[in-house]
């Protein structure tokens, strides 16, 4: 891998990790569902006018607007209100093994014993995290697990859907998520416009960073890298995101670091790595690297 591309990968995972910090800052001043809604407004305004869809793609994007836009993002922001940035990022990482289990049940995809072993390790990490004081109640953990499940279900939908360009998908999911997220905010929250009028840089930074840096810039770079390199070479780097989130949470938010958090994070990341990293493909890629284009 070219050195500049390696640093681009680090930039992407750092942007995603810092997104958890930005969201926490935004939640200081804005209700979580309204913050999610504002994020989708910005994404939709920036992308939808330049991205067209067809009738075949429409029903899939409507469904993703609920599973990815509402279930994943809205519940993530709600859960993050009651826990720290690192813990939220660790639990949501569980979306990868959940997606693998759902694919086994729904799509009849076969999992090797080593993958099932990795999934079990990841689940044990969440059990350990349940004892951490950074998770104040069982329902907070449940909300974050539901968010991870929303991400997992969305991955299965994307697998079955017709091809949709990444930025087109991002923009239209945001647009179709607006009604359901907006309705949830109207019925479950209050004084949203007052909070927005009085929001300082924390609130606005949370909105624009989550929409532009995390959704548009990071995903654009990520998909560009996936086109240049083997998926098995790129995907393991995404496991750095929860680790960096924990570190950034300590540095920028003063988050605590306890034994439950350390052990739980280690088990979730290790288990996910065992489940998703194809060591055989990595060794083959190392022995026969892709030739650079002149």
Task: Produce the secondary structure layout.
Blueprint: H1 3-29, H2 32-47, H3 58-82, H4 85-92, H5 95-106, H6 113-129, H7 138-160, H8 166-188, H9 192-197, H10 201-228, H11 231-234, H12 240-253, H13 259-276, H14 279-287
Helix pairs in contact: 1-4, 1-10, 1-12, 2-3, 2-8, 2-10, 3-7, 3-8, 4-12, 5-7, 6-13
Order of helices and strands: HHHHHHHHHHHHHH
Give me the number of helical elements. Answer: 14
Radius of gyration, CA atoms, in whole angstroms: 19 Å
Largest sheet: none
The portion of residues forming beta strands comes to: under 5%
Care to count the β-strands?
0
How would you describe this structure to a colleague?
The structure is a single chain. The protein has 294 residues and is mostly helical. Helix content is 78%, strand content 0%. The protein is built from 14 helices and no strands. The protein has helices at residues 3-29, 32-47, 58-82, 85-92, 95-106, 113-129, 138-160, 166-188, 192-197, 201-228, 231-234, 240-253, 259-276, 279-287. Helix 2 packs antiparallel against helix 3 (58-82) and helix 3 (58-82) packs across helix 8. It is globular and about 50 Å long. The model is unreliable at 282-294 (pLDDT under 50).
């Amino acid at each position: 891998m070219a050195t500049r591309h390696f640093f681009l990968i680090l930039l992407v995972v750092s942007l995603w990790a810092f997104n958890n910090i930005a969201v926490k800052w935004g939640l200081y001043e804005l209700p979580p569902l309204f913050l999610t809604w504002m994020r989708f407004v910005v994404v939709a305004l920036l992308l939808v006018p330049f991205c067209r869809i067809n009738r075949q793609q429409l029903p899939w994007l409507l469904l993703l607007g609920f599973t990815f836009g509402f279930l994943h993002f809205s519940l993530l922001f709600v859960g993050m209100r009651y826990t720290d940035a690192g813990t939220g990022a660790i639990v949501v990482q569980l979306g990868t093994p959940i997606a693998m289990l759902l694919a086994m049940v729904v799509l009849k995809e076969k999992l090797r014993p080593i993958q099932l072993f990795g999934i079990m390790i990841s689940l044990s990490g969440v059990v350990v995290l349940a004892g951490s004081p950074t998770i104040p109640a069982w329902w907070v953990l449940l909300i974050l697990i539901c968010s991870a499940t929303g991400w997992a279900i969305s991955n299965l939908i994307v697998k079955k859907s017709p091809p949709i360009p990444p930025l087109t998908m991002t923009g239209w999911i945001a647009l179709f998520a607006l009604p359901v997220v907006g309705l949830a905010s109207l019925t479950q929250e209050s004084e949203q416009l007052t909070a927005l009028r009085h929001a300082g840089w924390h609130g606005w930074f949370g909105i624009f960073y989550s929409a532009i840096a995390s959704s548009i810039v990071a995903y654009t770079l990520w998909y560009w890298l996936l086109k240049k390199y083997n998926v098995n070479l790129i995907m393991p780097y995404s496991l750095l995101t929860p680790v960096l989130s924990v570190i950034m949470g300590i540095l920028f938010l003063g988050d605590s670091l306890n034994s439950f958090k350390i052990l739980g994070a280690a088990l979730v990341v290790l288990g996910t790595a065992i489940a998703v990293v194809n060591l055989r493909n990595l060794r083959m890629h190392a022995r026969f690297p892709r030739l650079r284009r002149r």
